Amino acid sequence: MARKCFYSFYYNPDSWRVSKVRKIGALEGNQTVSDNDWEKITDGGDPAIKKWIADQMYGRSCTIVLIGSATAGRKWINYEINKTWDDKKGLLGIHIHNITDADGNNCVKGRNPFDDVKLDGKMGSSIVKVYDPPYTNSGDVYNHIADNIEDWVDEAIEIRNKRLAA
Questions:
Q1: Is the pTM value of this prediction over 0.90?
Q2: Cα gap 65→115, rounded to integer Å
């Protein structure tokens, strides 16, 4: 049975790359939202966005932050990271800069978004594992993620559970 995960990412530049990762199929992810639906959600302001995030995270055991060139430092990425941690769920990051977009282009490697948050009073990057597939070819990156994502999720959940037990 596939693990249920929430995908956190910066929509505008990375939605194409993210859709490729989501097609791996090893995990059950949150539903995508169309531009029109997202407009309706954001029209409700921060409370509506927080409710949408909470609804999407419900029943998930882990959040996977898919890291593009501009993911780090974004308000809602930070919120999703903190909410995941507060909800006692697994958390990990995967760099997706070498997965091609709709035009066949890669992007610049983004900085670690876990450098922007504190978890249990420590820098998030000292707790949460971030994976950077060691390839530049989009297909190789995809295959590396596909071959490892289930183990990465299991490890993220185990890390979180160990911290809760400590």
A1: yes
A2: 13
Q: Which two tokens stand for residue 82?
A: 């903190």
CATH number for the region 3-165 comes to: 3.40.50
Interstrand relation of 122-123 and 118-119 (parallel, antiparallel or unpaired): antiparallel
Domain residue limits, the chain: 3-165
pLDDT, tens digit, 9 for 90 and up, residues 25-56: 767 665 555 556 777 888 999 999 999 999 99
Residue 22 confidence (pLDDT): 85
pLDDT at 1 over 60: no
- One DSSP character per residue, 46-114 reads HHHHHHHHHHHHTT-SEEEEEE-TT-TT-HHHHHHHHHHHHTT-EEEEEE-TTS--TTS---PPPPPGG
CA distances from 91 to 59, 94, 125 (A): 14, 10, 11
How far is Cα 64 from Cα 156, in angstroms, rounded to an integer? Answer: 9
